[in-house]
Structures are given as C-alpha cells and as structure tokens.
C-alpha cells in the first residue's frame, strides 16, 4: 500500500501532460474533470497512505521509484521519503490543493485559457509533492524550481497585460536570488559531507561538525537564503505582494497555502543543521519577527483586498520563522497547517468578492456587502477570526504555541515574545479593518452586485470554514521527527502573560471596530498630521524596499546595459568576421574564369617551386 | 660502341619542346590549338623519358612513354568531344568566351 507513494506526483503530472498535449482542444467539462479529478485522486491516495503509515507505527518509509543519475559515488534517485513532517505537508498540499482546484473549476469558468490554467496547477501540485517527499536535496531542488516555474507561469497567467508579466518576472528573479544561495549551499554540503541524501547528510553533519563550526554556520546560512526567498521573508519579500497579479485561486494555493511555506519546510527538514548553528537559528527568529512586524504595518495601509492578504501571508510566515528560530519546530509546522486552512479560506473568499463585484480590488469601493455576499462574508469573518487568533479558533492554538516557545527561550526570548504579541495586535487590526470596510457600513459602489458562488465554489469555502474553526484540534504526527531538540514548552506561564496573549488580538479587533464601524475615532483626523501621512506613505510602499532595490540593483544594471548597448566584447569577434570577409574579397578576384590565367598561375607556381627547390 | 647522342642534347630538345607547348597553351585563343600545344608538352615529357631510358639502358622509360601515349590518346578523345560540344553550344572555338565561372 505504502508503495503507492510514487503515484502521488504521477497523477498530477499525467493530468498536466494530457492537458498540455491536447492544447486546449478539450471541452471545459472534461478539463475540469481531469484537472480537479487528478488532484482529488491524489488526495485519496495520500489519505490511504497516511492512514496506513500511521497504523504501521513506523517512523519513516523510503521508496525508490528509479535512480535518476549515477556519477561515481553520487547517485540521487527519485526516492520518496515519508515521515511525520512530509506526511503533514503531503496532506495539506493534496487536501487544500483539491479544494482550491474544485473552487477554480467555478472561478475560471469564463476564462478562455481554462485548460492552460489547470495544466499549470497540476504541474504545480506535482512539483510541490516532489519537493516535500524528496529523500535527497537534488530531488527537493527539482521540486523547488518546479514550483518556482509554476509560480512564474501562473502570476503571469493573464500575460496580455504587461504589468502582470512584470510581476511574474519580478517574482522569478527575486526568488532566484534565494535559489542561487541554496544551490551554493547544496554544493557546499556535498563537497564537505559527500552526500545529498537528507538523512545521511544530517547524520554526517552531526558527526563531523561541532556546534557553531564555520561550515555548519555557512551551510545553514545558505539554505536560509533559499528559504527566505521562497517564503518571502526579509529581505527578499518584495515579490509576494506583486504576485497577486495572478488569478485569485493561485494566490490561495501557491502564494498562501503551499509554495511560500516551502521555506519553512526546508528549515524544518534540515533541523539538525540549524541546531548545529545556533546563531543562524536565532537569526531565523529575528528575520521572522522583523518580517511579521513590517508586513503587519504595511497590511494596515493597503486598500487592495489581495495585497492586504498578501502582506498578512508574509506576516504569518514570519510567525512560522519565529517558531522555527526559537526551536518550536512542530508548532511552526502546526501554524503552517492552520495558516493553510484559514488563508486559503480568506483568499477564496476574496476571490468570490472580486468575481461578484466584477473584478473590483479596492476595498473602499465596496462597503456594506454582508447581505449581498453572505458566503464571502462568513468566509471572511471565520477566516479573519482564525487569522487574528481568536480564542479556540485554529490560529489561536498554533500562534499560542509559537509565542509560548518564544517566551521559554532564555535571553532574547522575552523580546521575541513581545514583538510577536505586538504583531498579533496588528493582525487583529488589519484583518478586521478588511472585514469592517468591505462588509459593514454604507455601500460605496456595486450596489446591485449578485454573489457568484455556485456549488463548486461554495463547497470548498464551507469545508475550509470548518477546518479554520476546528483545525486547531488536529494533532500532527511530527514528534518523532523533531524529537531531538524540540523546545519543551513549560505550560506554567503566568495567567497574566497568557491573558495578554488572548486579549491583545481582541484589542486589535476592538480598535478596528472603533475606527471603521462605530466611527468613535476618525481615520481622517488621524491622517491630518504630516507625520501620519509620511508614515502612511512609507508603510504603504512596503517600507520603501521596492525603491531601495530599484536604486541599488535595477537602475545600475539598466545603466550598465545602456552603456554596453553595442557590446564591447563583441567588437573582437566582429573584427575577425571583417578580416575574413576582406580576405575572401581578395581571393575572389583571382577567379577570373579565363583558362589562360589559370594555366599561367599553374606554370608560375611550378616555376616558383622549382626555383625554391634549387635555391634552398 | 656506336656514336650516341649525348643526353644533354636530348633533354635540351625536350625542354625546348615543352616550353614551346607551354607558350602555345598560354597564348593561343583557339581551343584546338591549345589542345595541340598540350600534346606537344606531353610528347616533350615523353621524349625526356626515352632519352633518360636510353642513357641508363633501362626499359622503364619506354614503358612510361607507352603509358603517356595511351594517356594522350584518351585525353585527345575526351578533349575533342568537349570541343565539339563547345562549338555546338557557343558556335566558337575561342577559349576566352568560356569565362562565366569567375568570382
């Protein structure tokens, strides 16, 4: 039964191939059946494998489909490695992935490129499964680049608009920075440890490298670079808000639930390596904290519904990094799972809003929509409650564990905790600002819009609502994976601290209520001062990171390209071409076509040779 | 021992014949004469072989001359065929007309 694991990436790949090879000639209904059906089938297989695996009580299961290449000692294979961690990831990808595919069959109905959309989606799921099930880092890297490619293709899905193509390129190039760092990390690991099989590599690292040794620090830092790029953390977070140019289900699947959490998976997978470099592990926590605060501030100032969600995704992944950094490995993975539920719910809800309001993205042109869009309204309320860690929703449990683990860390733990709690305040504020502005108050446009939510779109929303509320009660089987080195959280924190953690997000929701519903405070008055306006502008632009990178990298590069327009190096080769051409012209003149001339040159040449023979 | 012609004389004659032939090839415009001059050059080289063979008393040179003779016969057969073709097509025997294959 467990051997069927090779079917997992195969089904979506077959779906991709059949959709690509028919080149959009299939009727929509067939495309929907192939596109969503393949993922549904994969989910069933994954569920079967999961139950079998958990029943067997084994700690891991390895299955080699075939060997990929063999170069001396280096023989990476298409080998799948199943343990608690990859099991959780596999179920999230196939489960949430299937719901989003189902939703997409309704959402994309009017799109002429229906088949292309599902082809890319299936390829994405195949690559993502390859990534999480890989037993060696080479196969993992294949999946890693595969999801990056699909992300690029799907952000630029509506390529007719140049801005979308630009966003796609930006996402590709920025993540490439991280990927390059990761590739160098792989080279380093291979040259030092002689293997890229993850488990062997971790054992070898544990045996050969002392804690805090240079190689361990360097390797984990390089891998962290890859994770930071993929998961949109500081300083490579700038691509994710622009990635919202893609269709909304893409934002839900790739840029919220699965792909962007690949960085978290990578760090969790190489836990041993990061524990060998405690400084880098702490750096992970600080990166997470800085990102979650920065993204929280920015999310408060945005007015594009998808950009708000994008920044909240960056912020939540910041929490996961914080969890990884303070050694709360399973809590981070737990938050990854609950985040997949409620952020997919929020994005799919946003998709319903956007589709119902004729592709309106600006939340200040909505207002009072809770009667018009009931399904989207409930999705947003439940999703935002989970996002803001309302007590006993799924997000509460996971965020709680991360913050408690941060508190348990000696030294900077209290600061990390305080920052995380501050972030939770902003989470409550910005998530409910979105809810209040869109669904409460006066209608500010699209007064007679009807909700578009057929069976295929509403069902995934209801299922995700259920998991967003109750997902916190799921226990994920990752103890055996992280058994060594897991921060054992003391659950004896004082009631005061625990109370703070519960009250602070509610406070955020309350402040947002006072601003946007009861209008006790006025946003206009707050914005009157020039300081507030400056801050707003600064936050709105994502802390000016885009402009910074523009001046630091893009502009110098363009300048260089401009002065080198005529390619200096090319001159050398152009010279060779010109010389050859001139010589050719010279020789051509000797071909006169006159027999006398030829006979004379033969005789003359002979004479010359004879003379030379006599003389020398 | 009968009086023999010195080898120098024979070779000189062959050289003069060869040069005459060459001059004919280079200066004549009528292709028939060019072909004839070519025959003279061939026979000059044949003469050189004969002279050398008689000087050293070897049969090889004479055999070589027989081969040159055969070669010349074959060459004339092909050459005359080409000349007839050329005359049919261009109505002239002037070699300078056939100069399209240049450049």
Low-pLDDT stretches of chain B: none
Low-pLDDT stretches of chain A are none
Shape descriptor of chain B: elongated
Order of helices and strands of chain A: HHEEHHHHHHHHHHHHHHHHHHHHHHHH
- Bin the strand percentage of chain A: under 5%
Rounded mean pLDDT score of chain A = 86
Specify the biggest β-sheet of chain A: 2 strands, antiparallel
The main sheet of chain B comes to:
none
Please give the number of β-strands of chain A: 2
Helical amount of chain A = over 70%
> SS-based structural class of chain B?
mainly alpha
Number of strands of chain B: 0
Tell me the distance between the termini of chain B. 61 Å
Strand order, main sheet of chain A: write it out. Answer: 1-2
Count interface residues per chain for the largest interface. Answer: A-B, 11 and 13 residues
Task: Please give a structural write-up.
The complex is a heterodimer of chains A (616) and B (103). Chain A has 616 residues and is mostly helical. Among the domains of chain A are: 279-521, no CATH class; 566-615, no CATH class. Chain A has 26 helices and 2 strands. Chain A has helices at residues 7-21, 28-56, 84-107, 114-133, 137-155, 162-193, 198-208, 214-230, 239-242, 248-257, 262-269, 271-275, 278-301, 305-325, 329-356, 374-387, 394-408, 413-439, 455-470, 479-482, 495-516, 523-526, 530-540, 545-563, 568-588, 595-615, and strands at residues 61-67, 77-82. Chain A has a two-stranded antiparallel ribbon with strand order 1-2. The model of chain B has no long low-confidence stretch (mean pLDDT 88). Chain B has 3 helices and no strands. In chain B, helix 1 packs antiparallel against helix 2 (31-56). Chain B has helices at residues 7-27, 31-56, 60-90. The longest helix of chain B has 31 residues, at 60-90. Chain B is elongated, with a radius of gyration of 17 Å. With 103 residues, chain B is mostly helical. Classes of the chains: A mainly alpha (616), B mainly alpha (103). The A-B interface holds A 588-589, 591-596, 599-600, 603 and B 22, 25-27, 34, 95-96, 98-103.
